[in-house]
Specification:
63 residues; flat
Length: 63
């Protein structure tokens, strides 16, 4: 059981790393192509970071 849990944790870390890498790559491409400004990313990150999970969920479906 403990070994299986460690394997699952390792797999989740790998998935998290790949997702983070993909998101960072997309952001960099958007900035390089001048589709979005770095300041916009920073502002939106700060805005979302200040929200509660409930607020994020309601904001997601409010549009």
């Amino acid at each position: 059981m403990k070994i299986n849990l460690l394997a699952q944790l390792s797999e989740l870390k790998e998935i998290d790393y790949r997702n983070t890498l993909a998101i960072a790559s997309i952001i960099e491409i958007l900035i390089e192509k001048k589709i979005i400004a770095k300041d916009d990313i920073v502002k939106k990150s700060q805005e979302l970071d200040s929200l509660t999970i409930k607020e994020v969920r309601s904001k997601k479906y409010a549009h």
